[in-house]
Amino acid sequence: MCPHDPVCPSAEAPDREAARTIACHPEQGWSLLCNGVVLFEDTGELLPGGTAIAPHRPVVGAA
Known about the structure:
0% of the residues lie in helices and 25% in strands. The chain has no helices and 5 strands. A 5-stranded antiparallel sheet has the order 1-2-3-4-5, with no helix packed on it.
């Protein structure tokens, strides 16, 4: 259970990346969020149940 006020979004929520960081390892390229999501520097994610979310960097339009 999240101890933060307001409560962080769950790992299943569309805004799950808005949860607070509880462990950060930039030298290894990942952070652990309060909701159990592992967020990678390439924007990929690993959810608590083991589901992997592919990186989703914004697409830069051609000028």
